[in-house]
Design a protein that fits this description.
Length: about 350
């Protein structure tokens, strides 16, 4: 399948402006649109379903709720919990996209005899004559290609992203022109299931597996204070340490075995090298390495040039200049200009 000429298409609808405009655009292009809402077992389900249903009625499209709550709990929430309890800082969106939205939900789309799934992501999916290429969205402020670095060719060939070439302000203007005046610049939060809580508040204080209080130490092992659980900390964090000094301390590492938060000064946060595990290559196989790519170490990172090599311990990334707060558990995503080459977990 090298084009998307089918007349039936499913749209993953969240109740937000992006998925609403996506559905409307596809209608205008002549598609028969079916809206699907993922029930992930989160609070406020009835209110959100009612909101999406109202949008579907106004657009005049079929609408259905797909229950993916069990899969979401087993594959995303479990990963999130396991990562934090092991001293890593997870990125649940990177895991959710290939497993749930473009995994389980795409399977449900196929069960309904619909081949193509569309979402409101700000990315582009282009066929180059031999494979699908996932590219950055034209609006650099909203580009979401980082979060889709774990997709496969088998998934990409069934996906369309109508907003990939759009700017966000144009999306809002289109929504108003369609008669939707109630979005008001609302943006969805990055971690949908946290819902305004801190990480420590999200995890139950009665959970026996929750990391307990421990020491805050320097890299030399000097004890400077105490913490109430390593899951409340991440590399680069400054606030909440409670260590007075002439210059601030930052979290530079988490030692799960000793239940310690390791701190240092600003200069200790800068490194040139990292290792990546469980690498996913969007082309289906590894490119010829070593090779220089632009590498992002978190969503809001601008990306920096680095030499990427294959080693016995995984993929090694060596930046031309040091980068701040390289964080185990986050994902390193490789780009060739604006195309995603691959992504894996920083180990």
């Amino acid at each position: 399948m090298t084009d998307h000429s089918e007349k039936k298409i499913a749209v993953a609808m969240s109740g937000g402006v992006d998925s609403t405009v996506t559905a409307a655009l596809l209608q205008k292009q002549g598609y028969t649109v079916c809206g699907l809402y993922m029930n992930l077992g989160l609070p406020g389900l009835e209110k959100q379903v009612a909101k999406v249903k109202e949008i579907a009625v106004r657009l005049g499209i079929d609408f259905e709720v797909v229950d993916l709550s069990q899969a979401f709990a087993g594959e995303v929430l479990h990963y999130f919990r396991k990562s934090y309890f092991s001293g890593r800082t997870p990125n649940p969106c990177v895991v959710c996209n290939p497993r749930i939205k473009f995994g389980r939900l795409l399977n449900e789309v196929h069960k309904r005899d619909i081949d193509v799934l569309a979402t409101g992501h700000y990315v582009r999916n282009e066929w180059n004559g031999s494979m699908w290429q996932l590219k950055k969205g034209k609006d650099s402020r909203k580009d979401q290609s980082y979060f889709l670095c774990r997709l496969s060719q088998e998934q990409l060939k069934y996906l369309v992203f109508p907003l990939g070439g759009w700017r966000k302000d144009r999306v809002y203007q289109t929504a108003v022109a369609l008669g939707f005046h109630d979005f008001g610049g609302q943006e969805s939060q990055d971690i949908c299931f946290i819902q305004g809580k801190s990480i420590s508040e999200y995890f139950s204080v009665d959970d026996d597996a929750l990391p307990k209080a421990g020491e805050i130490v320097t890299s030399e092992g000097k004890v400077l204070g105490s913490h109430q659980g390593i899951c409340s900390y991440t590399v680069g964090q400054r606030r909440g340490l409670g260590i007075p000094d002439s210059t601030p301390y930052y979290v530079v590492g988490l030692n799960q075995e000793k239940n310690q938060v390791v701190v240092g000064k600003e200069e200790d946060l800068w490194e040139k090298r990292l290792l990546v595990s469980d690498m996913n290559w969007l082309g289906g196989s590894a490119p010829r390495l070593p090779c220089v790519y632009t590498v992002k170490i978190r969503y809001r990172h601008d990306g920096a040039p680095a030499l990427v090599s294959q080693t016995d311990n995984g993929i090694e990334v060596v930046f031309e200049t040091p980068q701040r707060a390289i964080t185990p558990g986050q994902f390193a995503v490789l780009y060739d200009e604006d195309a995603v080459v691959g992504g894996g977990e920083i180990s």
